[in-house]
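User: Please look over both lines:
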Amino acid sequence: MARTWFCISRRSPRVNRQLLECYFNTLDKGRFTGLCFHLHLERPKEYFMSIRKEIDMDLAIRLYRNDKLPTTKVSKIIGCCVQTLITRLREYGIEIRSSGWDKQKINFEIIRHEYEDLKMSTTNIASLHGMNAVSIWERLVNGGVQMRDRKKEATKANTKIPTDEHSKICLRYQTNKHESCADISEDYNVHKTTIAAILKKYGIDPEHFGARIKSYKGGITPLHTRIRHCEKGQIWRRECMKRDNYTCQETGGHGGKLEVRHLKSFSQIFEEFLSLNSDLDPENDCDQLFDLAQQYVPFWDIDNGTTLSEEAHHILHTS
């Protein structure tokens, strides 16, 4: 026999209080307190098996075992609590991962060897092993490793570049507007902060925007953002959700945090739009292009959108 407790508050509208009080009057297995009524009933195990929540276990197993999603995210996608998910996975013989399994720390001696013997920086070690540089630093300190002085390291790095090269670096940086400190540092085999320090020494402030950035695409980001998040874009999302009855088209879940995914990517539509208006510059003619975009049908075609839950949308983008 399995046991269950029913607990209700006077504020709860979901339970028939009179029915429970009737049980209380006929059974001496319950007790009534000032605010809550507790009823302890004996139920056969078969009863609870019959009212179990139906869960798509094929989807749950795929998300947990194959896609390596945590139980917190999987439970939201399939619509149950974390403990229920864990119980069902164990019933199917799925081993439950311990928390932090994907952040297993590497052997300390490996980190120490790379830092002391190979003279690698904590940043490079962290990047090599997919860890955080602060975590590497703390592990070395806790392990009794004598840490190198950062200021001395920076000074030492500066000495790698002869003084007569400094003026060439400054001239190169000012002349080529598409080169960053990182680009120059690769030619001198030093960190980008070393180049930045040399520029600052001669009164040049390194730029961290525009053409200096590797992801720069000719100043199209402001226009791209304006079109995507304009009022017409919000209306497009609402219409797509309304058409799909606010239901995730991947999992079938209704309501919750919903997003709309472009079937043909927004970036692709955007590139086609720019090619049709190649006589206009995205940076200098931003307002004119924005007005033209309001009339460009592919941007606002609801047949090109599908409603997804936040988690399902994330999985599609990362898979």
About this structure: The longest helix spans residues 231-243. Confidence is low (pLDDT under 50) at residues 1-16, 27-42.
